[in-house]
Amino acid sequence: MHNFIDVHSHIHDKAFDEDRDAVILEMEEKGFATITVGTDIVESKKAVETAEKYSHVWATVGMHPVDNRTEIFDRDAYKALLIHPKVVALGECGLDYFHIKDFEGNKDAEIDRQHTLFMEQIELAAECDKPLMLHGRPDVEMDAYEDMLFILKNAKARLGDKVRGNAHFFVGDMNIAQQFNDLGFTVSFSGVVTFAKMYEELVRTIPLDMIHAETDSPYATPVPHRGKRNTPLYVEHIYEKIAEIKGITKEEVRVQLVKNAVRVFGLTN
After folding, report:
1. Which of 3, 166, 190, 202 reaches 20 to 30 Å from 174, CA-CA?
2. Domain 4-265: CATH superfamily, name plus number
3. Is residue 103 pLDDT above 80, yes or no?
4. What is the DSSP code (8-state) at residue 219?
5. Residue 203: which of 172, 232, 224 has the closest Cα?
6. pLDDT digits (tens, 9 = 90+) for 121-175
7. Cβ pair 230, 191 in contact under 8 A
8. Cβ distance 3 to 32 under 8 Å?
9. Helix %, strand %, coil % for the chain, to 5?
C-alpha cells in the first residue's frame, strides 16, 4: 500500500544521479510512490528504465512542447515506449507560450509546431488508451490553456472518453479548472501552493476527487525545504497544505488523493 503518491516527478533526472537509489529506497520504506515523467525521447527512455527497476515508480513518455525543439516527433518510437506496462500516461505534452516572446524564429510557426505536436500526442494516447500528462504555461492571461482546451474538446468529440488525463503544475484560474474538470481531466498542484497564496481559492474550490499532489522534483521545492533539491518525499507537505486550505484532515486528503492517482493513471496500490 502507498501512503503518498507524487503524480509528477523527474526522479530519473541527472539531479538524482548521485543518490537516486538511496532516495527511491527511502521512498519505499516510507510508503511513497511516484510517476517519473519523460520530456523527450531520451528522457522518456530513462524514465522507463527507472520505472522498470522499482515497483513503486511508474513512468510517462512524451515530448514537452519546448524542452527539446530540435527533436522530430517519432510516433513509432514513442508508441513502442507507451505500450510498456510500467508506462501510465503520455506526456508531458501540451502548449507552452511563456517562452515564445524569446523565440528567435517565426513565432507563428512555433505556435503551429506546438499545436501539431500536441495533437499528434493526443491521437497516440487515445490509440494506446493511456491518459495524458498535460503541460500548460500561459504567457498572456490564460492563452495556452484556452488553446489546449479548444484542441482537447475537439479531440474528445472525435475520440470520446479515451481523451483524458491530468493538467500538471496547474496555474490556471477557476474558469480554466472547471473546463478541465468538465472534460474529465484532473489538475495537480505543486509545492508552489505551500508558499503562494494566489492558488488557495482554487485548491479550496476544486472538488477533492479532481485534485492530485505533485512535486515536479527536482524543481519547485515546497516549504519548509525551499532552497533544497526537491524529491518525491516532500509531496507530503503538499498533501498537508491541501488539507489546511480545505479545512479537512490530512488523512482524508491522503486517502482521496491516493484513490485519485490509482483511478486516473491505473496504478496498483
Report:
1. 3
2. Metal-dependent hydrolases (3.20.20.140)
3. no
4. S
5. 172
6. 999 999 999 999 999 999 999 999 999 999 999 999 999 999 999 999 999 999 9
7. yes
8. yes
9. 50, 15, 35
Which uninterrupted H or E stretch holds 134? strand 132-137
* Angle between helix 75-82 and 107-127 (nearest 10): 40
Say whether pLDDT at 102 is over 80. no
DSSP state of 251: H
All structural domains of the chain with their residue ranges: 4-265
For the stretch 234-268, pLDDT in tens is: 999 999 999 999 999 999 999 999 999 999 999 98
Contact, 3 vs 208, CB < 8 A?
Answer: no
| 3-class DSSP string for 24-65 | HHHHHHHCEEEEEECCCHHHHHHHHHHHHHCCCEEEEECCCC
Report the C-alpha gap between 142 and 190 in whole angstroms: 19
pLDDT digits (tens, 9 = 90+) for 204-244: 999 999 999 999 999 999 999 999 999 999 999 999 999 99
Can you tell me the mean pLDDT for 31-39? 98
Contacts 24+ apart (CB under 8 A), 115-118: 115/147, 115/151, 117/63, 117/65, 117/73, 117/93, 118/65, 118/93, 118/94, 118/148, 118/151
The cell numbers describing 225, all together, are: 525545504
| 173 contacts: CB under 8 Å, gap ≥ 6 | 142, 202
Cα–Cα distance for residue pair 43/191, rounded to 1 Å: 23
Q: Tell me, what amino acid is at 152?
A: L
